[in-house]
Fold this sequence. Notes:
The chain contains 4 helices and 5 strands, in the order H-E-E-H-E-E-E-H-H. The protein is α+β, with helices and mostly antiparallel strands. The protein is globular, with a radius of gyration of 14 Å. The protein has helices at 3-20, 49-66, 98-104, 106-110, and strands spanning 24-30, 40-46, 74-76, 83-87, 91-97. It has a 5-stranded mixed β-sheet. 35% of the residues lie in helices and 21% in strands. Helix 1 packs across helix 2. The protein has one domain: Beta Polymerase, domain 2 (2-Layer Sandwich).
Amino acid sequence: MTAQRESIDAVRIAAAAADRIRAEDPVAYDVSVPMAICDAMLIVSSSNERQTLAIADEIEKDLYLKCGGREPRDVEGRDQGRWVLLDYGDVLVHVMLRDVRDFYGLERLWGDCPEIGLDLPERSGAGDVGGSAKAADD
């Protein structure tokens, strides 16, 4: 398996973990071209600080259990719970309060990169939480 494929698989596992904790508006980008040191980035929103921390914990747990003991190189923001950054080297995960996400607008910065399809199940009564059909899978 290629390194980039492993990164995309890790992003999908992280997105599924976040989805179980009811994260909002997940989106992932293939950032391997503009950021040669990182392959993929996942951004999700939460409605409060406790949910931000719960989402981050669930992502860490699943990546450890399902990706051969994968652990973040660094974790930022856990003390406040407004924006938790999990840095896995090849994958960056941003778990952000909705207002923080709106303010910093990471999608505006990375939106030109190919979006990674997350293959999440649709939630009843919700909008497009399953990720985009367009994907940078290969």
